[in-house]
Request: fold
Amino acid sequence: MRHHKGIGIRKCPAETTAAQVRTGTTAQRVLIAQGVALGAVALGLLVLELPGIVREVRIWRMIKLRSGARRPG
Reply:
């Protein structure tokens, strides 16, 4: 099986430690953890803002606001 240049299995000399070989994996785990944390913050913010969004939708329905339509004045 051919691997792309720079991607694939690293052949390490006998004197290298396992910590040096696993650097990419650790970085990937940190990146995934940051993504999960960011997603949790975004979801929490959405939950906090949900009552306000529902209120706005009710107001829009009350005045029958449609796309581009203005309230007759």
